């Protein structure tokens, strides 16, 4: 089963990382994706397919301040 940020994601396997992120309405331009311990570069999002036993960590950046 695919794990995303430590939680099971049953529908993730078989999708590209880009399709998975857009399906979750994730901020693709402001997100870092770690797949099985390796950082994916943004151009890889559309070509990397999520496999059934993958582990994804999604980190999004939020601006703020004064």
UniProtKB/TrEMBL annotation:
InterPro entries: Beta-grasp_dom_sf (IPR012675), Mopterin_synth/thiamin_S_b (IPR016155), Thi_S (IPR010035), ThiS/MoaD-like (IPR003749)
Pfam families (UniProt xref): ThiS
NCBIfam families in alphabetical order: thiS (TIGR01683)
Name of the protein in its database record: Thiamine biosynthesis protein ThiS
Protein source organism: Secundilactobacillus similis DSM 23365 = JCM 2765
Taxonomic lineage: Bacteria, Bacillati, Bacillota, Bacilli, Lactobacillales
């Amino acid at each position: 089963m695919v794990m995303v940020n430590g939680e099971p994601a049953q529908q993730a396997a078989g999708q590209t990382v880009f399709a998975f992120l857009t399906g979750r309405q994730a901020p693709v331009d402001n997100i870092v994706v770690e797949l099985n311990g390796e950082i994916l570069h943004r151009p890889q999002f559309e070509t990397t397919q999520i496999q059934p036993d993958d582990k994804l960590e999604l980190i999004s950046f939020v601006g703020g301040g004064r």
